[in-house]
Amino acid sequence: MTNSDPVEESAGDGRDLYDIATWEPRTVLDRTAVKLHSALAGAARISVVLLAAVVFLAQVGGVVWLASQRATLGAVALLSAVPAFLFVAFVWRQDVVEKEPIDTLAVTFVLSVLFASFAATANTLLQGRFQSIPLIGMALFFFIVVAPVEEAVKWLAVRLHAYRQPEFDAVIDGAVYGAVAGLGFATIENTLYVVQGFLRAQEAGASQAIGAALGTATSRALAGPGHVIYSAWAGYYLGLAKFNREHRGPLVVKGLLIAALLHGAYNTTVTYVPALFSLPNWWYLVFVVAFDGTFFYLLYRKLARYRDNYADTVGEEADSDDAADGSTAATADGIESDEVSVDDRGPVWDAPESSTAEDADEDADREQ
Predict the structure, then answer these.
(1) Domain presence at residue 299
(2) pLDDT exceeding 90 applies to what percent of the chain?
């Protein structure tokens, strides 16, 4: 299947096929259509963000406000996101093409925080339906609702803004922005869990509610890096899709499938294993290190392959350009050197005259 109409493919005489088999904005109506399409697309994006902001304020606005009013509680919530931040920093350092601008990264982070409200709404509305299913209900809930929806909203945080920016100019940029989206989601999710743990401890009359919040933050600190890893995978394939438009749809789906399967497997394991087996408290730490470590290493290998190929291709091209510049400079130096050697002989009138046969005869006569 080609991207051209048969008429366009067969027309080799340069004929004008405007509004027949090709199109470009020429008339007033054409330009109006272009402007209207751009305005509608922009309005749609703004509407999504505004809707997310409204849902966010309705759902977790009070939680965020409470965390901001209690400095210790807010600090505990933010500290729980530090491990996820370190993973993001590592992925960011793998970008060998050009480091992404802070403002675009910040917008991606904020959008992910806002869009988390969509996932929270879906989870809240659908969880009860799956809990009524014996044995496998929660596993289905994780794989059908939680993982796909949460990975989709993190993906949307990248697609809505960063993807459209000129700074998104390499496949590996997708992994960077995906990781940042994961950090945004983990930050607001951790804050929600920490504040809820604090409030439950207060309601139960616990004297050390902050201690309870700190315990929640510790467990959430282990869960946060997973969000970064999953969405970095989805983001990488979004970057691959941007530069392979003929396969854009399948590549996006592949990235989201990888992220959702990893996410669902993690949630299912940490929910079912403690319920089925009697395990020591440290099993969760061992599992998280093994699970996240494995798939983060695989992500690292993929990013390393990109870096290696970048060095082999773009790096060699830069070296050849430098060599060409050096050769040109050497040639110029050689020409300049030759010119200097000619000039060093002095003016033409100072050059010794060559002997002729007549001069030789005159010299012989004088000698005689």
Answers:
(1) yes
(2) 64
